[in-house]
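[retry 2/3] Type-5 uracil-DNA glycosylase: previous attempt timed out, resubmitting with same input.
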Amino acid sequence: MPTAEGYPARAVAQARTLADMDARLVECRACPRLVAWREATALEKRAAFRDREYWGRPVPGFGPADATLLITGLAPAAHGANRTGRMFTGDRAGDLLFATLYELGLASRATVTGPDDGLELTGVRVTAPVHCAPPDNRPTPGERDTCRPWLTRETQLLRPTLRAVVALGAFGWQAALAALGEAGWSVPRPRPAFGHGARVPLPTADGSGAPLTVFGCYHVSQRNVFTGRLTPEMLSRVLAEAAHAAGLPVERRGG
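[retry 2/3] Type-5 uracil-DNA glycosylase: success.
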């Protein structure tokens, strides 16, 4: 078992591929509060999932290593991805996200349940700035910063193909901009404010390689959907614009 102190930074320095990084990520124990919470939740379980074995570890990103579009949110849900082991699966927020990706022709399934359901994403990778489920779905700033090397390295490894990023929510927006700045893109100062529909082009800091565009979108949380702050149509519009910026063909299903 790797020692917790300095682990993310040491691990990402050795990761040469996304698969290698993900293998190191799932062993991370750098944040004691998150480790205790994710593991306790995996033991206690929710009544509806009493007969299921929970993942209970850090949750890696999901999607092809040559993705041109990256979607990043907040953190795994305690009884969602912390149970299934795959980002954004097992809860209502993920249901909406993947159903919309399916509608746009970017996912092979509209309904997803876990790693064995056959889901494949086309040109899209889904991740988060914090990879462990936090209490009350609220990671601390320190936990966010400790986890940042994973997102920074993930975007570095995607850099040859990455052309667009969708940040779900203000937390994801700020975390994404910080990681992209460390990964080699030039982020304006002061940092652009989050807003639904926000769109910020980022050139590379050294002038080499392709720029990318960061899109802001309200988070796909149940609260945002139930209150009407985010509608399926609003989400679909942002994801379609981001897919276009990423060079992905959008073929809406059902006409």
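[retry 2/3] Type-5 uracil-DNA glycosylase: The chain has a mean pLDDT of 94.
[retry 2/3] clearing retry counter.
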